[in-house]
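Sample pair:
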Amino acid sequence: MLLLAFDTATDVATSALVRDGHVLGERTSVARSLLEEVDDLLREAELGPAQLDALVVGTGPGSFTSTRIGLAVARGLALALDVPVAGVSTLDALAAARDDAYPVVDARRHEVFVLGPRALSPDELELEPGVVCIGAGAVRYRRTLEDKGAVVPPDDDDVHIPHARLHAQLAHEFGAAESVVPIYVRVPDAELGSSA
C-alpha cells in the first residue's frame, strides 16, 4: 500500500511517502509549502498522485490554522484522487518516536498540549523523574520541565519533530476524508477574542 502522510499542526510540517512500511522519502517544511513538498516527494520517487492508495493526516492538537491547512489538503486530495484517509494525533506520532517519550506540543498562550489530550501550563505538569519530554513545547519550556526532573533532548534533536513516517506507521482506520476531525482541545484565539 502506498501512503502519503503529512502533519502541519506544529511549526514544522512533515510529509512522507511510505510503501508497505518502507519510507520512500520524507520532508520537513512549513504548512504553507505542503503541496510543493508532496509534489517533490512523488517526483523523487518517480510516482504520480494517481498511484497513491491512501492518505494519513495529522489531526493536532497544535496551531488551529496549520491543523486546518493539513485537513483541507487531505480532503482536497482525497476527493481528487478518490482515496481514503486516516487521521493520527500529532501527540501520538510524537510519542511513537521513542518508547520512553512524553510528547509536549507548544500550545502558545503559555500552555502546552499533552496526552489526554489537554492544554495546561508547563508549571501544572506532573512528571515522573527522568521522563523524556519531546516536542516543541519541551524545547520552549525546557527549564521548567528540567526543574521538574524531566530530561529534554537537545533542541536540534530530530525527536522533537512529529515525523509523518510515524503517522503512517500508526494509521489503521481509513475512511472518508470528512470523517477525519481535528483535535483542538480549546477554542481558537479568534473565538476567544470575540467573546471578551
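The helical segments are 34-44, 64-81, 90-95, 136-140, 142-147, 164-170, 189-194.
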